Amino acid sequence: MSTLSHRRDPVTEVIRPAAIVPEEAARTVLLELARRDVQNGGVWESEPTTWSRWDRPWSPSGDVGGAQLLGSLHVAYGTPTRYEITIYRITVTVAGIDAGWTVESLCDEALGYGGLTLGGCPRAVLQAPPRPFRH
User: Residue-wise over 34-70: b if at least 16 C-beta within 10 A, else e?
Assistant: First the structure.
């Protein structure tokens, strides 16, 4: 058997319709992710477009060291309204899969800080596509 037959890939799932984190929960989630930052002894790294879950904190110098990325939530701030956050894609790395993480469990940990789960999160309203233009 070749090594390639055992190769696994990360799992990426597009959330459709996208999950919407309401204003109050969004504030709480962002506060808790910041409190649990990898550079402060936590396991989350939150950026304006991505929330990443690591297996352990980074070194005190801010170096990733031996920490492994377990997965990421891809987010958009200020949409659909100014104070809401949209979660539109989730990636669980091979290290995350090996550690038992799923798309749902990764989301549920982050959203849990705001009292939400992926399954119970409000969803974006999908608009019907526009009718084709005809002469």
Answer: eebebeeebbbbbeeeebbbbbebbeeeeeeeebebb
What token pair was written down for 6?
A: 């055992």
Tell me the two tokens of residue 100. 């038992």
Domain boundaries, the chain: 9-112
Q: Under CATH, which number does the domain 9-112 receive?
A: 3.30.310
Cis peptide leading into residue 80 (ω within 30°): yes
| Element containing residue 25 per DSSP (H, E) | helix 23-35
Closest CA to 82 of 33, 18, 26: 26
pLDDT in tens, 10-39: 999 999 999 999 999 999 999 999 999 999
Residues paired with 85 in a beta bridge: 21, 77
DSSP per position, 108-119:
HHHHHTTT--TT
Cα-trace Rg, the chain: 17
What pLDDT band is residue 5 in, cutting at 50, 70 and 90?
Answer: very low
Hey, what are 65's tokens? 């060291």
Enclosing H/E stretch for 27: helix 23-35
